[in-house]
Specification:
By secondary structure, the chain is mainly alpha-helical. It is built from 29 helices and 5 strands. The chain has 4 domains: about 210 residues, no CATH class; about 100 residues, no CATH class; about 140 residues, no CATH class; about 40 residues. The protein has a 3-stranded mixed β-sheet, with helices on one face. A two-stranded parallel ribbon has the order 4-5. This is UPF0481 protein At3g02645.
Length: about 575
């Protein structure tokens, strides 16, 4: 039996997180607390699943500073408390009319609202939690001053309470470590606490809110991997629960679920109509596509009447003349082996592909793993696909089948990006019930990037701005991204995936490669047998000619034909 199993199999008293008396006191206070109006607070700070933490702990567990209650007592973080205490002392000097104890008293009154933000049970007394939040919120507020537009040089040296943290040679390192820590899902504090602190530092609440909004917008522009324009800047930054939620809704705009569901219903109706006509189209699909190929080449000739040639080519007699012999020839033993490839050359898809398309019309089920598959950037470029950047958000992802251009939003990658991406995916899977847009985006990029050559192509197309050491690091970043806890369908991303896969499948190079793999490389046993039979036939001919002097007969036959 493992140590974990022994722990859970031990007596109930050994597994109590707190003593009974403390538990009763907290329950009584919770029930008897006069809260006035009901709290309209949703849980927004969740625990990261253990499977994700074990995959890369440094991406989910803070490495320098603990902000919030989840990691406050971690031994490797507690030694940095002296820096946070120095920040709290400076915050107390900035408060107008109150001291830090009075601020803690206010937080104590709002203890249950603070607890409501956290998914995990907080094993702290009310006063302990209030002091913890006052110190951590003061530290976070002082750190956000680095991103205010009123400060020209956004560094620790320009913020007095931050200048004592590190020396001049380690400023950048500490800066990046704190940036990573403050965007982790388990390292969040409610923004309304920062708002209350800054209200006590300004003469008016309007001025305080404007300054805090200025800090938050500057922070978003600094850390966001996507371009944040003035139009896409958040209007109500103070209405979000914490920093990670603010970043999420800046990167992923809210999608109108009603419109999206309506679109799915319309798509289902259209797919139903397509199924009704499917039996008619299957019989004539190959013939129609064959004449489509013929017409595309004939129509380039000048002097031909469009309607006349069209009527002749797609007329029923011509269709019958082609379809009839083909149905007989395709049943021959040798031809039947290559029937699928010949039909796919003209039809553009096989029967198995049609079944997959039928299955993909089910919008009410999670996507299959196969539906996430997409060729790499290198393979798509070989098939004629071109990549272009957009200066908009993720909702601008689309593929233009007419021009073969795949539009993707520009993304900037640096040493802090991976931590942000991973925590955004985890937050989305914890909060959003459907339409995991950002998760689907990461799956798309993870699918098209396999090697550093793929990154190089996207970098040259300005889809990726690489601030890391090499393209190989960017490729590793995306390839190491785990899939989310659950899969989902996002209409506009799935449409782009479907269109680019169809475009890729129609490429002549891809068809030829598939033909070679399926019927040449995949049929090497059959080809070996045919080669052996041909060699045996030649041996028989050679033996026959050695006995019956075929050479003299061939010369006499050639002479007769010559006369």
């Amino acid at each position: 039996m493992t140590s974990t199993q022994q722990q859970w199999s031990s007596s109930p008293t050994s597994r109590r997180p707190v003593d009974e008396l403390q538990w009763v006191i907290q329950i009584r206070e919770s029930i008897e607390q006069e809260t006035g109006e009901p709290m309209n607070v949703s849980v927004s700070v969740f625990s990261v699943p253990n499977s994700l933490v074990l995959s890369k702990p440094e991406a989910y567990i803070p490495q320098l500073f603990a902000v919030g209650p989840y990691h406050h007592w971690d031994p490797h973080l507690y030694e940095m408390e002296r820096y946070k205490l120095a920040t709290a002392r400076r915050t107390q000097r900035k408060l107008h009319g109150i001291n830090l104890q009075q601020l803690v008293d206010y937080f104590t009154i709002n203890e249950f609202m603070i607890r409501a933000y956290y998914h995990r049970y907080l094993e702290f007394r009310g006063e302990t939690l209030a002091w913890m939040m006052a110190i951590d919120a003061s530290f976070l507020l002082e750190f956000l001053r680095c991103f205010s537009s009123t400060i020209e040089d956004k560094s620790f040296t320009k913020v007095p309470s931050m200048s004592h943290m590190v020396d001049s040679k380690k400023i950048k390192l500490a800066y990046n470590l704190i940036l990573k820590d403050v965007v982790m899902l388990e390292n969040q504090v409610p923004l309304f606490l920062l708002r209350k602190i800054i209200h006590f530092q300004f003469s008016s609440e309007e001025e305080a809110d404007a300054e805090l909004s200025n800090m938050l917008i500057g922070f978003v522009k600094e850390i966001s991997p996507f371009k944040v324009s003035e139009e896409s800047s958040p209007k109500d930054v103070l209405g979000h629960a914490h920093l990670l939620e603010l970043l999420y809704y800046v990167i992923v705009p809210r999608i109108n679920e009603h419109q999206d569901s309506t679109k799915e219903i319309i798509d289902n109706d259209q797919s139903g109509k397509a199924d009704m006509c499917d039996s008619d189209k299957k019989s004539n699909g190959c013939v129609n596509n064959f004449f489509g190929v013929v017409w595309s080449s004939v129509a380039k000739k000048k002097g031909l009447t469009y309607n006349f040639v069209k009527k002749v080519l797609i007329g029923k007699p011509i269709k019958f003349l082609i379809k009839g012999p083909w149905s007989i020839i395709s049943k021959l033993p040798v031809v039947s082996v290559f029937k699928g490839s010949i039909e796919s050359m003209f039809c553009g898809k096989s029967v198995e592909k049609e079944k997959d398309d039928d299955d993909s019309t089910s919008h009410n089920k999670p996507p299959l793993v196969e539906e996430i598959l997409v060729p790499s950037v290198k393979e798509l470029v070989r098939a004629g696909v071109k990549f272009a950047r957009t200066n908009q958000d993720i909702t601008s992802i689309r593929f233009d089948a007419k021009t073969g251009i795949f539009y993707l939003p520009e993304v900037t990658l640096d040493c802090n990006t991976e931590v942000l991406l991973r925590n955004l995916v985890t937050y989305e899977s914890s909060v959003v019930s459907e339409h995991l847009v950002f998760t689907r985006y990461t799956e798309l990029i993870n699918g098209i990037i396999d090697t550093e050559e793929d990154v190089k192509i996207l970098r040259e197309c300005k889809v990726i701005r690489n601030r890391m050491k090499s393209d190989a690091e960017v490729a590793d970043l995306w390839n190491e991204m785990r899939r989310s806890v659950r899969l989902t369908k996002v209409a506009f991303i799935d449409k782009a995936l479907e269109d680019v896969n169809k475009y890729y499948g129609r490429s002549s190079n891809v068809k030829m490669n598939k033909f070679m793999e399926t019927y040449v490389l995949g049929s090497w046993k059959m080809l070996t047998l045919l080669a052996a039979m041909f060699l045996l036939f030649l041996s028989c001919v050679e033996a026959f000619c050695s006995v019956y002097t075929c050479r003299s007969h061939l010369l006499s036959y050639a002479g007769v034909n010559g006369n």
